[in-house]
Amino acid sequence: MFNFDFYNPTRILFGKDRLEEIDKYVPVAATVLITYGGGSAKRSGLIGKVREILGSRKVIEFGGIEPNPRYETLMKAVEIVRSENIDFILAVGGGSVIDGTKFITLASFYNGDARDLLKYGFMPIPFDVVGKVVPFGTVLTLPATGSEMNSGAVVSYEHGKFPVMSELAFPVFSILDPVITFTLPEIQVANGIVDAFVHTTEQYITYPVDGRVQDRMAEGLLQTLIEIGETTISAPENYNARANHVWSATLALNGIIGTGVPQDWATHMIGHELTALFGIDHGQTLAIVLPALLEVRREQKRDKILQYAERVWHIESGNDNEKVDLAIRKTREFFESLGIKTHLSQYGVGAEKIPVIIEQLKAHGLTALSETQDITLDVSQKILEKAM
Fold it and tell me: Which of 131, 224, 246, 319 is the 20 to 30 Å CA partner of 145?
C-alpha cells in the first residue's frame, strides 16, 4: 500500500427529514446565495422549503447551472457573490450544481483571470493561489458524482471539460435525504448508478498493492450497486434501495477507497470528450468506455480484473481468460440492464468520428492516461474502436 494523506472535513446529514438542519449550520447573519440547475428544484418546491428554513437571512437565488456547468455561467454567479457580499452559498442539486458551486467559491476572491483555475487538472490548486473562499453547503438531489463529500469539480469551457481540485472546496455540510431523490427521471437514476460504479472501478481495477481494506470497501460498493441498481430505477420510492444508492455514490468518491492505491481515470477522461463533442450524458459515456477499456487493457489489469471477477461477480469456473471475458461481459450487461446503451454507434457516433475525439484528447494534453500513464493516443484509439 502506498503512503497517503486523508482529509475530509465535510459533515454528512443523512436520512429523512434533515432539511431543517440547514438552519443549524448556516450562519445566522449570513447573506446566502442559493445555486441550482434547470428549475426542477424550484418547481418541486424544494427551493421554497430551503428559503423558509433560512428564515430572516438575506437570500439571493442563482439558477440555470447546466448539467455540465459552463465557466461563463458560473462567472455570472461570481459577480453576484462579489456585488452582494455573499457570506455563504447553498447548492441545491446534483453533481453539476455542486461542482459549479465549488468553482464559484474558488473564483469569487481570485484576483486574476479565473480561467487560470482550470489549468491545474488533477493537481490541487495551491492555497496561496486562491486565498479566501466562500463557504458552502449542499442539499443533494441526484446521487451520482460524490461531489457532495469531496473537493473536486469538473467545469466546461469552450470544447473541453476541466478538473478543478482544491482542499478549500470541500462542502461544510451536505444533506443527503433519499426521499428528495424519489422524483428523479429514470435515466438520471441509471446514469447515477453507472457514475458511482465507474468511480469505484477506476480506483479498484488497476494493479495490486495489497490495499486490502480499500479493495474490500470497493468490492462492497460494487456489489451493493449491482444489487440495488434495477430496483432503485423501477421502484423509485423504495427507500432502502435509494438510501443505499445515495450512500454508495457518496462513498465511491469521497476519497476513502482511493487512499494508498493506484487510480486510473482514463474512462472519465475519454468520456468527458464524448460529452463535450456529442452531448452524450456523462454516465452514458462511462458505460460506453469502461467495457472497451477493460478489453483493451486486459493484460495490464489482469490481476485486478480476475479479483473483480471472483469477488464481485462470483465467477469461479473457467480459466483466467474465460473469467476475464465473463467479468467484462457482465459489466456491460449490468449497464444495459439499467437501460444504458454501451456502444458509440447506438448514439449515432460512427467510426469516422474517432479521429476528431483523438484530436480533442491531444488538444487537452490527455496523451498519457491510466494508472501507469501508458494509454497513449494510439491506445485511446483502440479503446474507441472497441467501443463502437
Answer: 131
Matching residue, cell 452582494: 84
* Phi, psi of 300, deg, nearest 5: -65, -30
Report how far residue 61's alpha carbon sits from residue 23's, in angstroms, rounded to the nearest whole number: 17
Q: Pick from 251, 172, 242: which is nearest to 16 by CA?
A: 242
Of 139, 163, 180, the domain-final residue: 180
CA 48 – CA 62 distance, rounded (Å): 13
Q: What is the DSSP letter of 94?
A: S
* 209 lies in the same domain as 273: yes
Q: What is the pLDDT of residues 313-339, one digit of tens each?
A: 999 999 999 999 999 999 999 999 999
- Residue 264: count of CB within 10 angstroms of its CB: 25
Q: Which residue has the cell 468527458?
A: 272
Other C-beta atoms closer than 10 Å to the C-beta of 333 total 12
Radius of gyration of the chain (CA): 20
The three cell numbers locating residue 356? 476528431
**Per-residue cell: 172:** 461544510
What tens digit of pLDDT does each residue of 224-267 get? 999 999 999 999 999 999 999 999 999 999 999 999 999 999 99
- Answer whether 150's CB lies under 8 Å from 203's CB: no
Report which of 201, 360, 366 is spatially closest to residue 275, judged by C-alpha positions.
Answer: 360
Q: What are the percentages of helix, strand and coil residues in the chain, rounded to 5?
A: 50, 10, 35
Q: Which of 180, 198, 224 is the last residue of a domain?
A: 180
Q: Sign (positive/negative) of CA torsion 282, 285, 286, 287?
A: positive
Bridging pattern class, strands 31-35 and 136-140? unpaired
pTM: 0.97
**Which of the four pLDDT bands, split at 50, 70 and 90, describes residue 298?**
very high
Q: Which amino acid is at 294?
A: L
User: Could you tell me if 61 and 203 lie in one domain?
Assistant: no
Q: What are phi and psi of 31, to 5 degrees?
A: -90, 120
Here the cell at position 371 is: 494508472
Parallel, antiparallel, or unpaired for β 88-93 and 31-35?
A: parallel
Q: Helix count (H) and strand count (E) of the chain?
A: 15, 8
Choose among 155, 151, 144, 86: nearest CA to 125. 151
Show the cell assigned to 52: 423558509
305 and 323, same structural domain? yes
Half-sphere exposure of 3 (CA within 13 A, CB side): 0
Range of the domain at 337: 184-386
Compute how many other C-beta atoms are within 10 angstroms of the C-beta atom of residue 346: 12
